[in-house]
Design goal:
The protein is an alpha/beta fold. It contains 13 helices and 13 strands. The chain has a domain of 197 residues: Rossmann fold (3-Layer(aba) Sandwich), CATH 3.40.50.1100.
């Protein structure tokens, strides 16, 4: 029996097909490549019942992942993150069935571990020795971690304002780390020149086809956690957009296998007001976005002025009758505090942005009271200590506690 039903790679724009058993980056037309599987064969071999006997990690879906041999799997136990009902906060804001899928508990503290686990595993299988990538923080930390476990050299470039904790994460895991006086697109340009000069493997977002395969497992898990009855709405903080592209891809694959019905969740791309190229393109009905000038947001993970896969994000949103929403930094910081105080969830600022968007869409009637709604929290708030500013009273040793 096959460990993976990996078939080939296909360009979603020009539909050229590439072998999956050679190193591949972008299509010759410049588009990202998407992985295809023999889903008919997978359907015959794999059943929902079989999953129940497997480990609670993303590798439970290995037939639908691109690693051909289990010997090449690089893992830290990532996946099967909890689906948490917001029993206090949901009713307060008029949503009886509001959930958070909490990626903050995954290895490296963010959903980036999914893409890194599968991307590094496949790179190892293809014989990659050195990879390079730009990152806003968490992706670099994750790829550095999994590269260390795989014995692959990682070269990582971050904007100078990237969170210190993720910079340290890269460094302690042995990556060669550089900072650039600019944004992630500037880091990406440097990586592109280096890849061309040295022949390294380009692990930039969507410039290799396997990161998305790790991210798509969030879609499989959401379906499985709801007993294969998909929710009505999924809100996702969108920077490079790999997560929302991956979830949509997973849902389409499950449809083709007959595991879910025709109805899909409405996908919502959530961005920051000062970096909202996807939102602008969605509002204007355009197929792709324009470079956002002078972008800035405290939610560093979604500070992406121009996503390579923007057309795929917009297709996922439109094909599911979803929408795109932008929120302010002040709003998302208030939402971060609200989630923590009401539900004990210290989420990352990107994840908090989805709550703001959900509240707004509920107030507008776009989300109905009884609909099942999932917020994707993409990382732990602990990795963003500067988002919380508090003043704590100081006591002297002999003071009485001023409460009661």
């Amino acid at each position: 029996m096959s460990y993976s039903f990996l078939q080939d790679l296909e360009c979603p724009k020009c539909h050229k097909v590439y072998s999956a058993d050679a190193v591949a980056q972008l299509c010759e037309c410049g588009s990202p490549l998407l992985v295809r599987y023999d889903l008919a064969a997978a359907k015959k071999h794999l059943s929902k019942d079989m999953l129940q006997t497997r480990e609670p990690s993303l590798w439970r879906y290995h037939e639908l992942l691109p690693v051909r041999s289990p010997e090449n799997v690089v893992t830290l136990g990532e996946g099967m993150t909890p689906m948490l009902p917001l029993k206090r906060l949901g009713p307060q804001i008029g949503m009886k069935n509001l959930f958070v899928k909490d990626e903050g508990v995954i290895p490296t503290g963010s959903f980036k571990a999914r893409g890194a686990a599968v991307g590094v595993s496949r790179a190892k299988e293809l014989g990659v020795k050195t990879l390079a990538m730009p990152t806003n923080g968490n992706a670099g930390g994750a790829w550095a971690t999994y590269s260390a476990r795989a014995g692959i050299e990682a070269i990582i470039i971050m904007p100078k304002d990237a969170p210190k904790i993720t910079r340290n994460e890269c460094a302690v895991n042995g990556a060669k780390l550089f900072l650039v006086n600019g944004l992630i697109n500037h880091a990406g340009a440097i990586v592109g020149r280096a890849v061309k000069s040295h022949g390294w493997y380009d692990a930039s977002t969507l410039k290799e086809p396997y990161r998305i395969e790790g991210k798509k497992t969030m879609g499989y898990e959401i379906a499985e956690q709801f007993q294969w009855e998909v929710p009505d709405v999924i809100l996702y903080p969108t920077g490079g957009g790999v997560g929302i592209i991956g979830i949509y891809k997973a849902l389409r694959e499950l449809q083709q296998m007959g595991w879910i019905g025709e109805r899909l969740p409405r996908l919502v791309a959530v961005q920051a007001e000062n970096c909202a190229p996807i939102v602008q393109a969605w509002k204007e009905g355009k197929p792709d976005s324009q470079l956002w000038q002078n972008s800035s947001t405290i939610a560093f993970g979604i500070n992406v002025p121009k996503a390579l896969g923007d057309f795929l994000v917009l297709d996922a949103v439109r094909s599911t009758n979803g929408c795109a929403v932008s929120v302010s930094d002040d709003e998302l910081l208030q939402a971060q505090a609200k989630l923590a105080a009401n539900e004990g969830l210290f989420v990352c600022p990107e994840g908090a942005a989805t709550l703001v968007a959900a509240e707004r869409l509920r107030s507008e009637g776009w989300i109905k009271e009884d609909e099942r709604v999932v917020l994707l929290n993409t990382g732990t708030g602990i990795k963003y200590p500067d988002t919380v500013q508090v003043t704590v009273p100081m006591l002297q040793p002999d003071d009485e506690l001023p409460v009661g």
